[in-house]
Design a protein that fits this description.
The protein has about 650 residues and is of the alpha+beta class. Helices cover about 20% and strands about 30% of the residues. A hairpin with a 4-residue loop joins strand 32 and strand 33 (about 575-585).
């Protein structure tokens, strides 16, 4: 590593400027536009979704009621009822497990004589209510024999004032679904839902729900539109779901089981979220998985945003950092069958068992599943033993499905080396590498894949983020981390013949309910924003190109020399050369990029700049685009593109080429 690179790496860590270069002559780069080195996978830049940081319930899943079916470990968690109402029997939570094992509990409410009964739901750190928005309320209810009960539904603002109301008059002693809609008169960041029962006798209630009308694509049981729009704007090539460590579970009983997340929403079995108590300093005892956002909704989301679905399934192993529990190999068949059935659910005809369920849920056409992950961050011989059984069964029945396989939790070390050697010998399809490291690791590893075996398995950079500590000691989404990721990603793009997919992780975080930082997108109950890291991902995905061509200095790839990182692709659809340049130093750097292998370049191109004067700078709910792309025109003379890369910046240049 050259001295200047070391100094600039220190500057990136500390935020200090480096000394100006004594020579201001431009760095001379050469692009060989006629030499195609690799094709860029359509799936290259994607997104990784895991239900951490209240990403699903309380996040992208637009349901506003917490513990809507009373299935939390504390049955009335999230609900406020009158003092003494439980002890005197005014409200009971009845368990009917023998009749309904997937949704056993409901609330039995007995009205006190000549008085009403009121209960209030607090939502997920409050409810985000918008003035003028229609809200759709529903519940399953039945009257107790001889009862006459009216339900008044009120939305309350932060101060407890009513800002929306409607009424429902249940009838009959059998379970029925009741619905009502109303419009909010004011905005509230931390509103609540108040239910008041009046009349005589009693009522049973379950699946008490409140959704905004304006969900993504106006779907019932839908997703939060602003968050999905941020995902759509990334133009992701794939969507990996549902995780992550929740696939494994703390133990096998807590693992993610996709079959329990499809079908009627009221029949999906809630479980505790494994991030509920994972971090003592960020404990979230009210963090559960209702599975209103289940596998069907994940497939729909992938289809909506133009991404290939990449589901990850449990391979018979719980999280090895927790219990380390594994299912006996001779009892692995149900886990393997789940994988086979999932492929049928996604791709099978409507006359098949699982294809018929997909059609019943409203999607008769197949979801065109092409990839499937076996396990998450597993390691050791026990993983290989289970993976080989999965691979044989899946490939025997569905030979075209490509399997994604774990290389463990780290990008080096004994665990990684064992799996890397073993799975390559087994001719695995795709190897999943994860790296959560300081920014200097990313700067120093931009050439990581330059020497990888071109004929071996493809690489999936499945989880990565530069962990940069801010002044308060937290790992932050500051410009320091985003710039390091931009530099590293030049190496992923340059090696697109080896690296077939990549995704930052984690994706979403609620500002009042997170367990893990940094994250790509942050939100509260009303607002959301993309981090600087988000815009790095967006610039790569939106400027993906179709083929890789070399960009060289002194006939060598540019991977940190003079603190500059570079990669180039050609977008054959638009006829443009796309040059990506990262300056990791605190001083400006002039460059001259000579383009060979073309007749000419257009006289004008488009330059997108992402930069900040401070490595510690961040975006926020109050300043969501403090660091965001800025577009300019760039003039091109002859076949050379000249520019000066600003300190600590990421440049994307697009210019038309004539071959």
């Amino acid at each position: 590593m050259k001295i200047r690179h070391i100094i600039s790496s220190l500057a990136l860590m500390t935020g200090a400027y480096v000394l100006p270069s004594t020579a201001q002559q431009p760095l001379n780069f050469t692009v060989k536009a006629g030499e195609v080195k690799a094709s860029v996978s359509p799936n290259m830049w994607g997104i990784f979704f895991e239900d951490i940081n209240f990403s699903a319930d309380g996040g992208i899943y637009a349901e506003l009621v917490k513990n809507r079916s009373f299935e939390f470990s504390v049955p009335l968690m999230g609900w406020t009822v009158p003092e003494g109402a439980v002890s005197n029997g005014q409200i009971l939570v009845v368990n009917r497990r023998e009749d309904n094992s997937s949704n056993p509990r409901f609330a039995k409410i007995t009205l006190p004589a000549a008085r009403s009964f009121t209960m209030v739901n607090e939502g997920f750190r409050g409810m985000g209510i918008k003035a003028g928005e229609q809200y759709n309320f529903s519940l399953y209810a039945r009257l107790q024999p001889g009862s006459a009960v009216k339900l008044t539904v009120n939305l309350l603002d932060d101060a407890g004032k009513t800002i929306g109301t409607t009424t429902i008059s249940p009838a009959g002693d059998s379970w029925q679904l009741y619905k009502a809609s109303f419009t909010a008169a004011a905005t509230a960041a931390k509103g609540k839902l108040q239910l008041t029962f009046t009349g005589s006798g009693g009522i049973d209630a379950d699946m008490i729900s409140l959704f905004p009308q304006h969900t993504w694509k106006e779907r019932g049981n839908g997703l939060r539109a602003d968050l999905v729009q941020l995902l759509t704007d990334l133009h992701p090539g794939f969507l990996r779901f549902p995780g992550g460590c929740i696939v494994e579970g703390r133990d096998l009983a807590n693992r993610y089981q996709w079959k329990k997340t499809v079908g009627d929403v009221s029949e999906r079995e809630l479980i505790i979220n494994r991030w509920n108590t994972e971090f003592a300093h960020r404990a979230a005892p009210d963090y559960f998985q209702s599975f209103g956002l289940g596998f069907f909704e994940y497939f729909l989301l992938a289809e909506d945003i133009g991404a290939s679905p990449l589901p990850i399934l449990n391979c018979g192993m719980a999280c090895q950092y927790n219990s380390g529990e594994v299912v006996a190999v001779n009892e692995l068949d149900p886990y393997i069958q789940d994988a086979l059935d999932l492929i049928e659910f996604a791709n099978g005809g409507v006359t098949t068992k699982w294809g018929a369920l997909r059609a019943k849920m409203g999607h008769p056409a197949p979801f065109n599943l092409k990839m499937l992950g076996v396990g998450n961050e597993q390691w050791g011989p026990q993983y290989v033993e289970r993976y080989t059984l999965f691979a044989k069964a899946i490939k025997d029945k569905y030979p075209d499905i490509r399997l994604v396989n774990s290389l463990g939790p780290s990008p080096s070390g004994d665990k990684f080396n064992f799996l890397n050697d073993t799975l390559r010998k087994l001719q695995a399809d795709i190897l999943d590498e994860h790296y959560y490291s300081p920014p200097e690791w990313f700067l120093g590893n931009a050439a990581r894949y330059d020497a990888y075996d071109r004929k071996g398995p493809k690489i999936f950079a499945g989880e990565y983020a530069a962990h940069s500590r801010g002044t308060e000691g937290l790992q932050r989404n500051n410009w320091q981390s985003a710039l390091a990721e931009a530099a590293f990603m030049t190496g992923l793009e340059r090696n697109a013949d080896v690296v077939t997919m990549a995704s930052y992780a984690p994706l979403l975080a609620h500002v009042d309910g997170w367990q893990w930082a940094p994250d790509l997108i942050w939100f509260d109950n009303l607002r959301s924003y993309g981090t600087p890291n988000y815009y790095v991902q967006k610039l790569y995905a939106n400027n993906k190109g179709t083929v890789v061509v070399p960009i060289l200095k002194d006939n060598k790839v540019i991977s940190g020399q003079d603190s500059v990182y570079a990669s180039t692709v050609v977008d054959e659809k638009s006829g443009e050369l796309v040059i990506k340049l990262v300056n990791a130093a605190g001083t400006a750097q002039p460059v001259a990029v000579a383009v060979e292998g073309v007749k000419s370049l257009a006289a004008n191109g488009r330059l997108t700049i992402l930069r900040s004067n401070s490595l510690q700078a961040v975006n926020s709910l109050e300043q969501p685009v403090g660091i965001a792309p800025e577009e300019k025109n760039i003039t091109v003379k002859g076949k050379t593109v000249r520019t000066e890369i600003a300190p600590w910046s990421f440049y994307v240049i697009r210019v038309k080429i004539n071959k």
